[in-house]
Amino acid sequence: MWLLYAFGSALFAGMTSILAKIGIKNTDSNLATALRTIIVLLFSWLMVFVVGSQHTITSISGRTLLFLILSGAATGASWLCYFRALQLGTVNQVTPIDKSSTILTILLAFMFLGEVPTAFMGIGIVLLALGTYLMIEKKQASAGSGTATRRAWLIYALLSAIFAALTSILGKVGIQDIESNLGTAIRTVVVLIIAWGIVFFQKKQALMKQIDRKSWLFIGLSGLATGLSWLCYYRALQEGKASLVVPIDKLSIVVTIIFSYIFLKERLSLRSFIGLLLVIGGTLLLLF
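^ thats the sequence. predicted structure below, dont judge the formating
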């Protein structure tokens, strides 16, 4: 059953990237992230009450709560970096780097969870790394912009991948002794606090008045897609191995690339297409 949840997570995660890209086109990325998190929070707690796990809150151990908070903090950092990278770069540039967090996740799962990678997984990691490298392309920059500005999206994308890997490991530990929907809801509270804390620190809350209806719509839809992805992902992570669930979830790159072509008219070069095939092949090998 965890396999179906993992593929469901990949589908909704792929949709999230496109919906968020459209939603933050004319909106500050940190503010958009904070607004999206409200939708995720409402949806995740709704699921908690649907399954009736709210009654188990008092039985949560201190260790579980600690790892859920740490996982939520890592998620918040990953989100802020990811959506800033999406605002500065294209979906086809940012997504492959973000999905490369699979490599770090497998290494961390081996080190801290005792999940030993197989020979197929080793080959898959190599193909995934090579494919990601091929998919990194230079973004056309406006005249007068410096190297730091042109590469800012890359830095944010790399940070997003690092924090995403930490999220998976911390989340795996945190939801071992708790119902997955409740664990997701608690983590989302932490993400919400971090996201809005940054918004108020930067004094960008006043920018909400400038958000147009289209942006509101897509920010809301991306939040809903994220909520669905999270619920599927952490249910799969609770039942399956992190080193298997994470690679399947990262297949969302296929959904993202297809949607970016249809809705954003972002085309892949031959180099990037070969890279995509390597990423898919490497990801599938990880499942062996």
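Residues 62-88 form the longest helix (27 residues).
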